[in-house]
Fold this sequence. Notes:
mainly alpha
Amino acid sequence: IWKLGASLKALGTFQTSSTVYFLVGFFTMYFLFKVKPSIPWMVPFAVVSCIIGCMCDDDALGLIPLDLPNLKSKYGILSCWMAQGLRPLPEIVAAADGGKGGSYGDVFQGALSVTIVAVLETLISAQIAK
């Protein structure tokens, strides 16, 4: 119930442009799935969304003067790391939470969450493959 309260409290932070974009995209994909269900419409929609985001970003193309929130507007320019060297677990725990340190329980809770999601994805994929 407390999560519902937090969600209702955050209702005032929504932006009209992103809400309209979501609704247009949702109904467009819904219609396209009804017309041609054999095509995975999420993939072309993701490509079109990247292009629209690029056209709305002043630092990229800036062709559309629309304030459409994206990852760059929230987190800035993100660095790309394909691989990171292995570090000992005590060092990872000590560096957690911005250097304040964490607990092994936090690490194992995150690991357990990822494991549960991976098992569920495997089971779902197995059911689809049948």
